[in-house]
Every structure is written in structure tokens, then in C-alpha cells.
Specification:
Chain A is α+β, with helices and mostly antiparallel strands. Helix content of chain A is 29%, strand content 25%. Chain B is 31% helix and 14% strand. The chains are: A alpha+beta (778), B alpha+beta (181).
Chain lengths: 778, 181
């Protein structure tokens, strides 16, 4: 791995505060809604008040009469659809076509001089509906009950079965079997900045410029071109500052097509920014899953076979281009055994339509669900056998000598530190001491619980919600003055790519950080890339930056060797200056080389091209690379109020080489906080008529500062065999944390014999369950 | 809707604008005055991203009409960094990695800057309580708390006449230490 660094690494691995921060802290960064364009019109949507209904008529005459209204559009005015990938034949219309299929589906688009006027006009549009019976229960929906969501297709839009050879015999002959049902309720990413888009024709070229906080700028450009029948080279997508995305902003949404089409039709710039209520009604939801599970094991708790029926409610349409229901189930089925050595697996997957918001990507996608199931299963086995939860995990963990390890679903864990991270986490937590404290506390009526969560995190995948481009690209240009500009096709939203990619380049080029600027998210400038999603930017983007930097460095070495009359192998770089190794007096600066490369081209060493520009594409050696780690939580549960307080939280994380530990830890902190939300707070609640009841931040609760624990983090480093040894790590913390916290709550409530298999675990759930429980606590 | 003339005093400057009486202070600051550092995250007073000072008190600008701000001094995030130099709290948040996507950051800076003026020596629990009205989806708050702590230390050193703000104490708060145990 070390030979991949052209210079001794000064920057990769260092805790470097971000170059992005200053503009953000001063309030000078430009998010989508901050962009000011002359004559910018604003769009608002009339959204369906029904979960399911036929549209009888739309009367927009009163809306047209409101001063400042420029247009009112229905599907007939913009008859475009988001086509479905994969097995489902159902397209999603830009605006509802004859039927509405979830509360909040956009029916009419109004364009006006201001958002205030556009919303007034929305209220003046009269839509007549005939309500239909909504499909809301995923298990009934599998049998097409009460009816089909789409007449043309059965509700089950994805079905898969898988079984290892010899499964049934192994399962039947196992000494013990347990059945359990795990369920996660709907959540959403809930980025602080809502979604939005601006489309404005470029008055100079006539091309269309689209500003959008998307995670995949090139893919959005391609989608818009294809779906709106535009020429791709006449479209430019620019990603401004993005206020959080978490997978949710990877999708291409109907509103995006409506805005671009409106700007084409009106020949004027148009913007749409979601308000918070619209966000809940139209951002993709996630985590609507049920796992009916049976597990077979022996007296020691060694798991022999797992049988799982995975179900997900995909909502009214399969979100484009990535159905969250398929993503959550099909990937969960591949890693449901986690870091445990389980020989036999049988999975059945059913994804169904319903009259709810489409299910899409949210950080971790399958992972938070699968980890919750897998760790819950292990805890249930420990409970059943009266064994220590840590001991049962030791019995089952994949051992170091088994790596690389192919799991029962056929996934290859390339490398990892499963046993090591687990033992480190127990030591960090002081597990034995907490067990003793737990005993003492119970005697005085205090209920502590310990939750353990071992996770695997597939990263750097060829295919993710960011698209199915299995590589990333980086262009590097040394400017005539010797400074460096780099472009990547990523779509960051706070991950600090401008800093981390510059760290990688600085080490390759032997220049200092302040002489490098990293740009992204402009399809006119950046080379085509997949974008940000699925924990791919570090390993794939970093790999592209490394490769482009190295290619540039090779060229610079030839220049330096030529100018210093030395051998290429003897050239070393520091602070933007090349010298002959060991002889600092003989040196030449990057600026000197750049001057020749651009302005004194007759002096260019023979065989080298004019200028200093390279574009490189990096494809990792494997289709997926696994990060891993362990989370351990200690909670106290107040049995009379149901209040859960996290007393201690330990993370041992192994994502291979760390580019910037400060940023890695920030990602972990944020993922754990979202895990606290998933485990204890966040729930999108539908009523019996299919109305979403949680459409404000007063109803959908996000974790606030007092609720989120202080985390202690330890890094282990098992490098991948990809570039720099980097593995992805954006999702692992949210994959592991709901299971750790839920496990801790269940452990605290074990004196009552109460164990929750459904998230979130709200205070009222705890109080109600303890009230029902006949078992009195010790 | 009829527009009315309003004179607003923002960051020490006077702005004469014509706005609809129903227009939110947050929208007028952003659209009519052009100061887009004040962010709108929910428009119902929960997330805290739109926090500005009205007469030096942190206020949710999405819960006020602009016409209500007439005659009051409004301060926004743009006023905190002097000549582009980050102030002590901003610098501490930068050093401690107390921001990621940055959308909630201006609201958090406005809330905690005012808080530190009134509570120069807060405990970690105090800081978390003071932060509870500002939602952040990225950082898990840990490094924001660390940044506010660091700013409080720098304020304390500055006011006690200490020459160096650096000190020897470790500020890598994400490693080691147990505040709850």
C-alpha cells in the first residue's frame, strides 16, 4: 500500500480541518434557495389529499385569475413519466394521470411570480376526486388485497427466493429453533435543507442550466435528457451547496421534470423549493420492512441456519432509479448473517406497492434493518439459552483465519477485523464492569441495559442509489502559475470532499493543500462520474484522485529530471518543489515547470504533450469492499416514564486507511445520532385512510443535542486492496447503531421478559409493555 | 396582496423595502435584503436554522413577520465575521469539525454566540440544553459541543488577560473521557 504514495504521506491520515468550513460559517455559501436569478418564477404544487382516488376534473380558472400567476400545468401539459427500472412495469407520471396513488402526490403545478402567490393559486385550483379504498398493509397487499394499487400489475413487484444447498436438513436437525418477527417503521432522511431545483435557459448559448442539490449530477443530466427528450449536451447540471442528502437526494423526482419542463415552456427561469410539509409528503421514505425469521442453533448458541421472509412496502411507485424496497430487501438478504459464520440461509423477498410515498434510499438502506434483525436474533438466542450476549457473539463471529470469507448468500468479505473490533469494543466499554453495575443498579430499582452490535458495511459498490457506474473520475490541471485545480463527478452534501480529495492529491503531487482547489458537481467541468452514495466517494473518488495525481506526478517527474539533469528515480517533491534526492540545492518549482508546459513549449522534454492536464478513471479491483466494526451502548430505562437515556456509547470502526480521521469521526457521530432517532424517535405514521399524520418536525421527531450520547471512537485499520487501502464508511455508523440501542433497551427490560422487535421503541411502547407484563422485575 | 413600506435595521444598516404584510422576516432578510446566510429549514419554528438576533436576542425569523421587526435591530450571521475573519466561536467550530453540510450552522452560531455572552462558563450539559432548539442532522452534535466548549475557554482566557489562547490541554474530545460514567 505504501508504494501507492508518490511522496511520503503528509496529508492522508492527518486530522485536517476542512477547507469548506469558512464560507459555511460566515453564511456566504450558496444553497439552492440562495441562488438569485432575474425574473425567477416559483412553482408550487397542488397535492393529493387522498391516498387513492380517481381524478374527475381539474378546474384552475380561479387560479389563472390571480395576479402574478403565469401558468397552471396538469399531466396533459407535460405528459412525461419516470420509467421504471427492473421488473416493475409501472411508470411514475410527472403529475398525476387520472388517478392519485398517495396522499401528497403532485396533481397540478402552478407557476407564479413568487411562492406566496403560487401557494395562493394552488388553493384556488379545484380538483374533484372519487376516493378509492387505499392499500396500506403490506402483508394483505401481497395477496392483492384489498385491491391492486395499479390495475396493470399485481402488488408484488419484486419476488426473489434463495436457499443454500442442504438448508432444510440442517434446519430440521438443529437442536433448537426460534421464530421471531422484526419490523422497522417508515422513516425519512429529513435533511435540514429540503429538496429543490432551478431551471434557467442560458441566454448566451441557449442551453438549459439546472441547479439541483442532487447526489449524482451526471446521472440527473442523463435522466432529464432522456425523460424530457432533450439533448444531453444542451443540458448543464450544477450542484450548489447541499444541506444534507443521506441518499434521499440521489433520486430523480417528478418535481424536477416539472420545473425543467416549465422553464422550457415558459422560456423563463423557474424554481421549486419544498417546504417541510412537502418534504414529508414527497421525499422518498425508507425502512418500511418486516422480517419473518426462523433461526436454528445448537446448545452453545452456534447458529446453524437462518430462514427469513423479507417484506418491504415500496409505496405507490418504485422510486427512480432505485427502489428502496428492492434495495433494502435484496441487499439485506445478502448480508443478513452479518459478521457471523452461519452456513445455511434461506430467504424469500416480497416487495409490494401501496398507497404511500415511494420508498427510496436513506443512508445505510438495507443495513440498519438487517443489523437490527441479525443482532436481535443473536440476543434472542442468548436469552433462550441463558448465555451471555457477548459469549454467543464470540461463538459465531467469523474468525481471522477464515478471511477472505464468503457468506451463505455468496458475498465475499474481502478483509476485516470482526473478532478484534468486538473485543476492543468490550474492552473500551469495560463490559464486565457494566454487567456488575447493571446487577447493582437493579437492586436499587434502576434498569440499565447493554447493547452490542457487530456490523459489516458493503462499500464502494459498482451499483448504488448514486447509479450503476462502477468507477469515479478525476481531472487534474496544473495551472500556468503552478497552482492545482481538480474536478470530480461527485455530489457531496457535507462529507468534506474538497478537503479529503485535496489531501489525496497533495500527497501524490508533493504540493501543499492551500495550492489545490477541488471542484465538483458541474457537468460542464467535471468528468463523468457516478456521484456520491453507497459510501463510494472515499474509495472510488479517492482512487480517481490518487490515480490522476499519480499520472500528473509521473509527468512532472520527467520535467524535473530533464531540468535538473538527473534520473527520474532521483526526483523528490516537497511543498511544490522538486529536488534531486538528498541535494536540496538542486531544485525546480512546479511554477517553473508549468511555465514551460504552457508558455515555453519548445523546452518541453521530448515525448510529453503540451500542457499539464490529465483525466483518470478509477475502477476498484473488487465489486464491493467490506468495512466492519462494533458498537456498544449502555442505556438506562425509566420503567415508569419509558424514558431511555444513553449512558455510554463506544464505537470501534474499521474502514481501512483513513484519509482524514476528523471527518471519519464526524460521519460516525452523525450516523449514531440518526441511529438514536431510528431506535427511539423517528416514525412516519399513516392513519387508516392513508393520511400521513407526521408532516412537521413537531410530529416527526429528530434527535436533539441532549438526547444524543457522547461517543468514544477507536479506529482499527484493515486496508482494502483498492486504492490507498481506503474503504467506505458513510453508512456503517447508522447500520450498527439502531441495533445497539434497541439491544440495550431490551437488555434493560429483561427482568420483565419484555423484548421489542419493532422500531422505534417509544416511551409509550415501553410503559404499555411493562404494564401488560405479568413478570415482576427482580 | 398589497405591499407596505417597511424600514428595517439589519446588521447596522438601514433598508427601506416594500413587502407584503404577511411576508416572513426570514423571507425578507433572504429575498429583499439579499442576506441568504439565514436559512429556512422548517418554517414552523422547530429546527432553529433561521435564528437571527432581534435586539440581541436569538429569534426564529420564520415565526415573525418582517413588519414586526420595524424599529428593532436585526443581526444575521453575516455580521459575525469581521472583514471575513471568523470570530472565536466560528473558528472553534471549524477547528473541532462542528459542521458538515453547514445548513444548520448559521442558526447554531447565532444561538450559541448569544448564549456564551450570557453564560461564559457553561458545562457540557448546559451547552447541550442550550443547543436543544437547533436541529443538526449531520454532526450528532458532539463536535458542536466541543467547539462551543473551546470558544468558552478562549473567551475565558481572553477576559482573564491570558496571552495565549492555545493552552496545553487536549481538545480531541472525540477520543477518551467519559462524561456520563
Amino acid at each position: 500500500m505504501a508504494e501507492e504514495f508518490a511522496s511520503a504521506p503528509h496529508f492522508v491520515g492527518a486530522r485536517i480541518p476542512r477547507t469548506e468550513d469558512s464560507r459555511l460559517l460566515r453564511g456566504e455559501a450558496q444553497y439552492l434557495d440562495d441562488i438569485q436569478i432575474p425574473n425567477l418564477l416559483e412553482m408550487a404544487f397542488v397535492r393529493s389529499p387522498y391516498a387513492a382516488a380517481r381524478i374527475l376534473s381539474v378546474d384552475s380558472s380561479a387560479a389563472w385569475n390571480i395576479p402574478g400567476v403565469r401558468a397552471v400545468f396538469t399531466f396533459a401539459d407535460m405528459p412525461f413519466v419516470l420509467p421504471q427500472n427492473g421488473p416493475s412495469p409501472i411508470d411514475q407520471p410527472v403529475l398525476a394521470r387520472e388517478r392519485v396513488r398517495h396522499a401528497g402526490e403532485a396533481v397540478v403545478a402552478v407557476v407564479a411570480e413568487s411562492r406566496y402567490i403560487a401557494e395562493d393559486a394552488c388553493e384556488a385550483v379545484h380538483v374533484a376526486y372519487t376516493p378509492e379504498e387505499p392499500v396500506l398493509d403490506m402483508q394483505a397487499a401481497q395477496k392483492d388485497r384489498p385491491r391492486r394499487v395499479h390495475d396493470a400489475a399485481p402488488n408484488v413487484f419484486y419476488h426473489q427466493e434463495y436457499e443454500t444447498e442442504g438448508f432444510q436438513a440442517a434446519f430440521d436437525t438443529a437442536p433448537h429453533r426460534l421464530t421471531m418477527t422484526f419490523q422497522t417503521t417508515r422513516q425519512t432522511a429529513c435533511s435540514l435543507e429540503t429538496r429543490g431545483i432551478i431551471a434557467a435557459a442560458d441566454p448566451f448559448s441557449g442551453r438549459m442550466t439546472v441547479y439541483c442539490g442532487t447526489q449524482s449530477p451526471h446521472r440527473l443530466r442523463g435522466d432529464l435528457a432522456e425523460m424530457l427528450q432533450m439533448e444531453e449536451h444542451l443540458l448543464r447540471v450544477i450542484v450548489p451547496e447541499v444541506g444534507g442528502a443521506f441518499g434521499m437526494k440521489a433520486a430523480t423526482y417528478p418535481e424536477y421534470l416539472a420545473v425543467v419542463q416549465a422553464a422550457r415552456l415558459l422560456r423563463q427561469p423557474v424554481k421549486w423549493t419544498a417546504d417541510r410539509v412537502e418534504s414529508f409528503l414527497s421525499d422518498v421514505h425508507a425502512r418500511d420492512d418486516i422480517h419473518d425469521l426462523e433461526v436454528a442453533f445448537d446448545q452453545r448458541g452456534q447458529i446453524i441456519a437462518v430462514k427469513d421472509h423479507l417484506m418491504a412496502d415500496g409505496g405507490a411507485y418504485a422510486s427512480y432509479p432505485f427502489s428502496g424496497a428492492i434495495g433494502e430487501t435484496s441487499l439485506a438478504a445478502k448480508v443478513i448473517t452479518g459478521p457471523y459464520d452461519i452456513a445455511h440461509l434461506s430467504t424469500v423477498i416480497d416487495c409490494t406497492y401501496s398507497n404511500k410515498v415511494p420508498l427510496g434510499a436513506y443512508r445505510g438502506v438495507w443495513g440498519p434493518v438487517a443489523s437490527f434483525v441479525q443482532e436481535g436474533m443473536v440476543d434472542r438466542i442468548a436469552q433462550f439459552l441463558h448465555l451471555d450476549a457477548a459469549e454467543v457473539r464470540r461463538t459465531n463471529l467469523v474468525q481471522p483465519n477464515q478471511l477472505p470469507y464468503r457468506n451463505a448468500a455468496g458475498m465475499l468479505y474481502d478483509s476485516g477485523s470482526f473478532t478484534e473490533s468486538f473485543e476492543h469494543a468490550l474492552a473500551q466499554l469495560d463490559y464486565t464492569r457494566w454487567r456488575a453495575t447493571q446487577e447493582q443498579a437493579r437492586r436499587v430499582g434502576k434498569y440499565l441495559g447493554i447493547g452490542l452490535s457487530n456490523f459489516v458495511e458493503p462499500t464502494a459498490m459498482a451499483s448504488s442509489e448514486a447509479g450503476s457506474i462502477g468507477y469515479e473520475s478525476c481531472s487534474v490541471r496544473v495551472e500556468p502559475s503552478g497552482t492545482v485545480t481538480a474536478w470530480l463527478g461527485l455530489g457531496p452534501s457535507g462529507q468534506g470532499h474538497e478537503t479529503t480529495m485535496a489531501q489525496v492529491l497533495a500527497d501524490q503531487l508533493g504540493v501543499d493543500l492551500e495550492h489545490i482547489v477541488v471542484l465538483h458537481g458541474d457537468t460542464d467541468a467535471a468528468p463523468l462520474g457516478g456521484g456520491t452514495g453507497g459510501s463510494r466517494s472515499g474509495p472510488l473518488g479517492g482512487g480517481a484522485a490518487m490515480q490522476a495525481g499519480r499520472k500528473m506526478r509521473e509527468r512532472l517527474d520527467v520535467y524535473a529530471a530533464h531540468m535538473l539533469e538527473a534520473a527520474v528515480e532521483d526526483i523528490a517533491w516537497e511543498h511544490g518543489r522538486a529536488h534531486v534526492r538528498g541535494v536540496y540545492a538542486r531544485h525546480v518549482s512546479l511554477r517553473d515547470i508549468a511555465r514551460i508546459a504552457y508558455n515555453d513549449v519548445r523546452q518541453i522534454p521530448s515525448g510529453l504533450p503540451i500542457g499539464l492536464e490529465v483525466t483518470e478513471r478509477y475502477q476498484p479491483p473488487r465489486p464491493v469492499s467490506f468495512s466492519n466494526g462494533t458498537h456498544a451502548a449502555v442505556v438506562e430505562v425509566n420503567p415508569s416514564t419509558g424514558q431511555v437515556t444513553v449512558l455510554d456509547y463506544v464505537v470501534v470502526n474499521d474502514c481501512g486507511t483513513l484519509i482524514n480521521p476528523l471527518i471519519v469521526e464526524g460521519q460516525i457521530h452523525g450516523g449514531v445520532a440518526q441511529g438514536v432517532g431510528a431506535a427511539l424517535l423517528e416514525s412516519l405514521v399513516y392513519d387508516d385512510s392513508g393520511q400521513l399524520l407526521t408532516t412537521t418536525l413537531m410530529d416527526y421527531l429528530l434527535p436533539s443535542a441532549p438526547l444524543v450520547p457522547r461517543m468514544r471512537i477507536e479506529h482499527l485499520v484493515t486496508p482494502s486492496d483498492g486504492a490507498l487501502g481506503v474503504k467506505g464508511m458513510g453508512e456503517g455508523s447508522l447500520i450498527a447503531s439502531p441495533a445497539a440501542i434497541a439491544g440495550a433497551v431490551n437488555d434493560a427490560l429483561s427482568p420483565w421478559g419484555v423484548s421489542f422487535e419493532r422500531l422505534p421503541i417509544a416511551p409509550r411502547d415501553i410503559v404499555t409493555s411493562l404494564g401488560r407484563s405479568s413478570a415482576a422485575p427482580v | 396582496m398589497n405591499e407596505v413600506p417597511v424600514t428595517l435595521w439589519v446588521n447596522g444598516q438601514t433598508y427601506a423595502v416594500r413587502v407584503s404584510p404577511r411576508k416572513l422576516l426570514s423571507d425578507v432578510i433572504r429575498e429583499d435584503i439579499g442576506l441568504t446566510g439565514t436559512h429556512v429549514g422548517c418554517e414552523h419554528g422547530v429546527c432553529g436554522a433561521c435564528t437571527v438576533w432581534v435586539d440581541d436576542r436569538p429569534t426564529r425569523s420564520c415565526l415573525m413577520f418582517a413588519i414586526q421587526a420595524e424599529g428593532h435591530a436585526v443581526t444575521t450571521i453575516e455580521a459575525l465575521a469581521q472583514h471575513g475573519q471568523l470570530n472565536v466561536l466560528q473558528q472553534a467550530l471549524h477547528e473541532e469539525h462542528g459542521l458538515q453540510c453547514g445548513f444548520c450552522t448559521p442558526g447554531i452560531v447565532m444561538t450559541m454566540e448569544a448564549y456564551l455572552h450570557e453564560h461564559p462558563n457553561p458545562t457540557v450539559d448546559d451547552i447541550r440544553d442550550a443547543l436543544s432548539g437547533n436541529l443538526c442532522r449531520c454532526t450528532g452534535y458532539q463536535n458542536i459541543v466541543a467547539g462551543v466548549q473551546k470558544a468558552a475557554r478562549v473567551f475565558a482566557q481572553n477576559s482573564s488577560g491570558a496571552t495565549s489562547a492555545a493552552g496545553n490541554e487536549s481538545t480531541h474530545l472525540s477520543e477518551g473521557g467519559r462524561e456520563y460514567v
